[in-house]
Amino acid sequence: MPRLIFLMALLAGLAAQAAEPIRIGLNFPRTGPYKAEGVELKRGALLAIEAINREGSVLGRPLELLSLNSASREDTAERNVDKFAQLGARMVFGGATSEEAIAAGKRAHALGMLYFATLSYANEVTGREGHRYLFRESNSAWMSAQVLGEYLSWHLPRRRYHYIVRDDAWGRSMESALRAATGSQDRARHGYTRIPSHNARREDYVKAIQRAAESEADVLVVMLLGEDLLHSIRLARNLGLGSRMQIIVPNLSKSIVQQAGPRVMEGVIGTEAWTWRVPELEKSSEGQRFVEAFVKAHQEYPGSAAASAYGIVRQWADAVRRSGSLDSEALIAALENHRYQLLKDGQEWRAFDHQNVQSIYAVKVKARDEVMRDPYKQDYFSIIHRMTGEQAAPTLEDWQQERGDMLSLQ
């Protein structure tokens, strides 16, 4: 009997390989300021597809990944969606900025394809700009602000803040949410500097850091991503700000610490939706297998970008299996209010806004000496606080207030 089962599984696998593949499209930054995150996205997606095809594929057909470079530009991301549609992709996912996800998501909607946003943290993605064909796996700015606000109110109460903010949808929504969560809305007391969202020059970073140094702030919040963040953190360290201010980076990532170096990032506090340590914390066997597979393939630990891409592909494929369909409307019905456990504790695709509701973690970058003792020298984060998704995510009332007249997804 075991031999028969093995042969049947083998024949099913061969039949799936011979069937026409189901194509899905990854919009990812192969170049530009977020290219390191793009590498993670693609690696996570490929691991998911390998696992799905090994387990018997989807509707008897293997998955195939199509990938196009978005360079984190909205217009390029939109054009890529058109190319994916022409190539027969059944869904699109990815993105490294909120503007990119919003633009690409709207284009996918017009073409009848689902779009899953990654690394797109602005509240608008699933808030004011949300629609039925867009789902976001990554957390929102609001969710990051809630876990950070609670941690800071407990451990650094009544401090003076200074904000350096990327002048885009994510930066503005993150600033607003964190000011509210920390009680630092008074801009006269808690100062700020804005960095242009495009074509920022070195002098923009220098002026921003000098203004922070001249302030009386105890906490420096650097609301930047990618290379913008790297420039600013290095300048802050060179001026010695880390020794007299607690530096906060609301959305930390493995790739940022990797590029800047643990000495530069040591002691920085931020948030992550996932780190390679989370599966052990949450007793997730699937998450631990994912970490092991990623390490085996790449000789390094996976970051949250890889986990997000992996989770999206697995969840989309699961919805296809459960609905027995590739039709977008059928998949929306299968995803909405679907609860699952994959790489951590329980998660849910919330129906009213299509936000993935999941636990969020406040993390702190470890001392360099501790990091260097790790075999891969990438054990960057200590998890210092945890908040459930239900606590962190905006309520229906909060969401409807942001939406205005559009009180349901269209």
Automatic annotation (TrEMBL):
UniProt xrefs under Pfam families: Peripla_BP_6
Q: Does the keyword Ligase apply?
A: no
The family database entries (InterPro entries) matched by this protein are listed as:
BCAA_transport (IPR051010), Leu-bd (IPR028081), Peripla_BP_I (IPR028082)
Listed A to Z, the keywords are: Signal
Output the Gene3D superfamilies linked to this UniProt entry: 3.40.50.2300
Q: Which residues form the Leucine-binding protein domain?
A: 21-367
- What domain of life? Bacteria
Give start-end of the signal peptide.
1-18
Q: What does the similarity note say?
A: Belongs to the leucine-binding protein family.
Protein's name in the database: ABC-type branched-chain amino acid transport system, substrate-binding protein
Question: What organism is the protein native to?
Answer: Pseudomonas indica
